[in-house]
Amino acid sequence: MAANNNCEYINDKSIPEDLLCPICTDPLEEPLSANQCGHTFCRQCITGTFQTMSQCPTCRYTLTLEDFQPVTLRPFLNQLNQILVKCKSCPETNIQRGNFKDHAIKCMKTIVSCPAADIKCSWTGQREKMQDHVSICPLVQIQPVITELNATVKQQSEQIHFLYTVLEKISTNYKKTCKEYYKAKGAAYCDICKNRFIFDEHEHRLHYCPETDFCSTCVKKYFS
């Protein structure tokens, strides 16, 4: 795999062959090594390859993805991290690959999204222009309110789910009692809408106890 979309390797012809992935021919990223044959590949490369085959791409040894383990040999990982890259967004060069994420977080030329992207602000631009955008973006201004509303909705949804669970559990616990009750009474009425239902509808409604009933229509109306 290439280093990533924001950087590129410097003088990649000089990178030792044992640091290259046999599949993509780029320096290894998140290297995985096969226990049986010892060949090593990028995690994404070998995962994609094993969607259509079950052999080592290098030696054709029969394997499964479970046979691959992350490379933990520190000197080898250090060599990968020390490969030099340059930023595509700014003039800075000779950055060790292992340090590029730190550079990208601070690089003022990197393309970033608006902090309110999660609520549909479509702005993207260089990090150095972010503050100018934030100062005029209406979605950024209302983002705290929307975040709070979303949290409230989530909490209420969880409460509703809990109520359904309680009703269903109680319904199960009282099933035998209810059956005996309806055999004796033959009919009952929803405590909310007052509509009549009979024992044949027993499996199609939620009920609280033998003498306090809520038809499924009312439960869905008031608790969903």
UniProtKB/TrEMBL annotation:
This protein's UniProt keywords: Metal-binding, Zinc, Zinc-finger
Annotated SMART domains: RING
An MF annotation (GO) of this entry: zinc ion binding
Domain (RING-type): residue spans on this chain: 21-60
Pfam families: zf-C3HC4_2
Superkingdom classification of source: Eukaryota
InterPro entries: Znf_RING, Znf_RING/FYVE/PHD, Znf_RING_CS
Full protein name: RING-type domain-containing protein
